[in-house]
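Reopening this ticket.

The earlier resolution said the output was attached, but the attachment link was broken on my side. Pasting everything inline this time so it's all in one place.
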Amino acid sequence: MTRSVAHIEKVLEVANSPSAAARSRLAASWRRSAEKHGLDPGEHRSPMRLEGTHLRERLEAFEKFMTVASPRLDTLFSLVGQSGCAVLLTDDDGVVLDQRISEADTAIFEAWGLCVGADWSEEHEGTNGIGTCLAEQRRVIIHRDEHFYARNTAMSCIDAPIYGAEGQILAALDVSSARADQTEAFNRLIGAQVAQTARAIEEANFRAAYDKARIVVAESEDAEATTLLAIDDHDLIIGATREARRAFGLAAAGPLAPRPANDVLGRQDGATGFEKAERAAVIRALTRAGGNVSAAARQLGIGRATLYRRMKRLGLEQN
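Inline output:
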């Protein structure tokens, strides 16, 4: 029995077992691929690929996001590119929008269908790094034989989701390896870097979306998440990252109805991140103005009486 045939039989056996799917996320993905999407692990067709007008429309829709992401893709590729790895960025449907691949590895990745325009959704490619990451909205590593299709078992795929400025799933960041000797331990090291880069892209994209607002970094139980709030000139929260929405009980996704920052952050347990930021801003203005309240108020764009009230609320003495 060939290795390919053995893989196909194993996938079908696991996919047909409800109990296996209940015990394992990988088995659940194999089952979705076979039952929900009607895929055959032995199929040999190439991945679907968007071209022409359809691809241009996708690229145009994500142009601003790709501009933000591009330098961070470059940095990630500088770390993994010499190890036979490609860096890919997809949209929320799993269509590859951008890539970084060394010239020496281009042919093999092209042959696998890892290229701009290729659709790597779980619906079309079964269990794989990109598609399963998007389907389950979590970091994943799909190592060689963990892929659904037998034709994809020569690669390792390490992925992390990227969430948009309104909390929605926006993209997947993928590092795929063409190395036959790549170990699972090495995959985990790459996975940490992929997750860090995904967070950096998410943060930069959020800041770009709210470039006129004050951005406050909030505390979260999840140290790996991006927890940012966008606050306007009226001290209203007008935007929040996915983790900030979860941490403060805001709508999970979509535009936010403006909320007073103090109502969300509260002051019961001492100074919040917002209050510290506000206090620091007032102190900086007063310092620049040499303690002159009128001059400091002009710097902050508020009235003198308003600044006095804020100073009193923040516990700042006039001197």
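Reporter confirms the inline version is readable. The chain has a mean pLDDT of 91. The chain has two domains: 43-207, 214-313.
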